[in-house]
Amino acid sequence: MMSETPRRAGAFTLRTIPIPAQAPVLDEFTRRRLGRELRALYDPVIDEAIDPRLAELLQQLETDRADSEN
Length: 70
Hints:
Layout lengths: L27 H19 L5 H18 L1
């Protein structure tokens, strides 16, 4: 007799989608449209203030990278 593993509430199953051997090609019009839409979406975010704790972590990362390169 096989026993089933009980599922927790809220558990989900990931569905995988195979990737074709050759990547899809976007035409010039589509690439430009996507670029405009992405800029419109992310431009306001770039101007937002960064949390000081995050800024400190980023500075530490830069310092660590510089130290490891020397």
